[in-house]
Every structure is written in C-alpha cells, then in structure tokens.
Design goal:
The chain is an alpha/beta fold. It is built from ten helices and eleven strands. The termini are far apart.
C-alpha cells in the first residue's frame, strides 16, 4: 500500500527582502512537514512565522524573494507551478486567516457578500446557494443573528466578530490545509475555546492540516500536536506540543520564563536574553 505524502512538505525555505541598503532575511532555512494534524509555529514578532504562511500561499509581497530546495502540497511542486495554478490552490485547498482581519476585508462590500463570493468562486455555486452556505458558516463560527451580520460592512463589526468572519471565509471552501495566523487573539476566552473546538473538529473529521501561528505558548501546548519554535527566521527547536514546557533550547526556555504564573507570582518577570549565535544555527 502506497504511503500518503504529507499535506505540506518544506525543505530549506528562505524568504529574503532586497532593500536599497541590504538584504533582509525573514526566513532562514526552514524545513518541516505537515500531516493531518495541528502544527504550531511560535516565536516573538519578526521571527518569520507569518512570512512562512505567506510563502506557502505565494503571497510574499515585492520586493520579497522565496527560495527553497522543495515546497510541496500533497506531492505537487509548488515552486514549479505557474502563478495561475497557485491561485487555483489558494482558498480552495490552501487557506490562511490573516492577522488584523478587519484590514483583510473589502471595506465597500458587506461581510456576507464576501463570504458568499468566496464560496461561489471555489464551488461554482449559485448566488442563493452561496448565501445559504455563508449564513450557515456564520452560525458555525458562533455569530448570533447571522442574517443581520450578513448585511453589515466591515467597519460595523467588532474586532472579535471580524476575526470570526475571516475564519468563516477561509473555511467555507473546505480547504485541505488552513494556516491560522493568531486566529483567536481578538476573542474573549469563552469564544476562543469555541473556535478552537471548531478547528479541532475540522482536523479530526475532515483530516485537515492546521498550521497554527501564535504567541500564546500555553494555548498551543494544550491545543496543538507539534510545535516549531522560531527566532530570527530560523528554527530553534521542534518538539511535541505537550512537551513544550520541557523545551531545551535557551530561546524556548527564555520565552517560557517570561510568562507570568498566577500560582507563583514574582516581583519582576524575566527578560528575554538573545544570542547572536542563534541566527547562525548555534
């Protein structure tokens, strides 16, 4: 029996930005594979987490440059595909929930129309069918009165509601892989738990792969299967999520040491001490 290829396979990914004065290395030699699981990528701002997701979807803006020894989706060579072929994969098979969702929505279209349009694009559905599916998706992400929210513009919804609208839009095409960039950062704890339940169900029931980008170490250790810890575009450590608290790299230990502990409060939290050798793989 032939073994199923990983949903995503990345080897030696590099993302560079050419500026007038220097080359900025956003991602430096990242390698990983993703199966039908929940993979977290954690690290401080600027560590290359979001740029990794954008590289997979061919969304790195100019003057960015993406290079890799291999970048595959279900065995298909992403680097060898035409731009049109990559666009056909995006949304239908590979989706990404961006940070700051309200800025990712079209300000002159109602949120419901935008969700329905995504469904029509990927499923070739009629307008009425797309509307019904969009309303059901709004309900699935726990928005009350979906028929009312359907007709609202992005500036009329709260930050948390905008985040749920973006999650609905990215999930409505039923992708094989979802890249979720801080998908619950603007949600209160109760709604956050409910959204995580939805994502858990999709991974379990549909065999979807999830790349979960986050700053929240306790959250990913409880929710995800594996964790990649990044700093300066380079992987510092990769380990099972349940063992994150036992991470061995100094950067991982530093991130964990900066977390407040309500059971054992301290007068002053630790500060993160960085080492230049980490960027050289030391």
């Amino acid at each position: 029996m032939t073994e199923e290829p990983p949903l995503v396979e990345v080897r030696n990914l590099r993302v560079r930005f050419h500026t007038p004065t220097r080359i900025v290395e956003a991602v430096r030699g990242l390698s990983f594979s993703l199966g039908r699981e929940k993979l977290a990528i954690v690290g401080e701002s600027g560590s290359g987490k979001s740029m990794t997701g954008r590289a997979l979807l061919d969304l790195v803006p100019w003057p960015g440059e993406v290079q890799a020894d291999a970048m595959r989706f279900k065995g298909q060579d992403l680097l060898g595909m035409s731009g049109e072929a990559r666009r056909r994969l995006r949304g239908r098979h590979l989706s990404m929930v961006m940070q700051d969702p309200k800025f990712s929505l079209n300000p002159v279209m109602t949120v419901g129309r935008q969700i329905a349009e995504a469904y029509q694009l990927h499923r070739k559905a009629s307008r009425s069918e797309a509307r019904e599916r969009a309303l059901a998706m709004l309900e699935d992400v726990l928005i009350r009165e979906p028929s009312r929210v359907f007709d609202l513009y992005p500036h009329e919804v709260s930050g948390g509601m905008g985040q749920r609208v973006m999650i609905a839009m990215m999930l409505i095409g039923e992708p094989d892989v979802l890249i979720a960039d801080e998908p619950t950062s603007a949600l209160d704890v109760t709604v956050q738990a409910q959204i995580l339940d939805i994502l858990e169900k999709l991974v379990t029931d549909r065999g979807m792969g999830l790349i979960f980008i986050s700053h929240d170490l306790p959250l990913v250790s409880a929710f995800c299967d594996r964790v990649i810890v990044m700093y300066g575009g380079r992987v510092m450590e990769s380990l099972p999520a349940r063992e994150l608290a036992k991470g061995q790299h100094a950067y991982t230990r530093g991130l964990l040491g900066c977390l407040p502990d309500l059971d054992r409060p301290v007068r002053r939290l630790a500060t993160l001490q960085r080492d230049e050798s980490w960027l050289r793989g030391g």
